[in-house]
Amino acid sequence: MEAENEKVLREELEALKAEIIQVYNASGKRTSGEFEQGLEIQQNGTSATLLGYLYLGGRAAGKQPPLEAIERWIQQKGITPIEAKMKVSSLAYLIARKIAREGTNPENHLYIYDEVITPERIDKILERLNQINVNAFINEVQITINKLVNNR
Predict the structure, then answer these.
(1) 75-120: per-residue pLDDT in tens?
(2) Can you give the pTM of this predicted structure?
(3) Which of 22, 112, 132, 148 counts the most CB atoms within 10 A of its CB?
């Protein structure tokens, strides 16, 4: 029974991971591929965790993001500064400073985990696991009844 639970849990987490990647790729936010590479399933028996990046939910004002990350994002998106003399590093600094002052625009945030891991989805997973456990319980009861009947 435990092996079946582990298998179902692994299948469901792999399906969630695949759907998260699908929604992410369809969102137009894909740049480096780091997001997909950062999604990881850690499973220990019937306990499992899906790990991933939270940055798609945006950034609050207060702390400036690393300039190197902004520069990579600019290059991967193919963005060029409006002024011909402006360097990509200068544009990255200005973007990072604005993010530090104002945060990112909530309209541009992608709440991908909330979109994919819904209460309905969790109920579906629990229903699959419950079915396995109920069937195992019924089998145990039938075996016990058969033993009692045979030992009369």
Answers:
(1) 988 999 988 899 999 999 999 999 999 998 888 888 888 899 999 9
(2) 0.71
(3) 112
**Quick one: tokens of 55?**
């940055």
The pLDDT of residue 1 is: 59
* pLDDT higher than threshold 80 for residue 152: no
Question: Could you tell me which residues are beta bridge partners of residue 44?
Answer: 47
Q: Which of 99, 30, 31 is nearest to 65 (CA)?
A: 99
Token pair recorded at residue 150: 């045979």
Highest mean pLDDT among 44-48, 105-109, 121-125: 121-125
Task: Pull the structure tokens for residue 60.
Answer: 């609050």
- As to burial, measured by CB atoms within 10 angstroms (0-12 exposed, 13-18 middle, 19+ buried), residue 138 is exposed
- Tokens matching residue 104: 């990112």
DSSP 21-75: HHHHHHHT--SSSHHHHH-EEEEETTEEEEE---GGG---TTSPPPHHHHHHHHH
Provide the residue type at 139 as one letter: N
Residue 40: name the closest of 1, 73, 13, 68 by CA.
Answer: 13
* Furthest-apart CA atoms within the chain: distance in Å: 96
Which residues are CB-neighbours of 39 under 8 A, at least 6 positions away?
Answer: 17, 20, 21, 50, 51, 52, 53
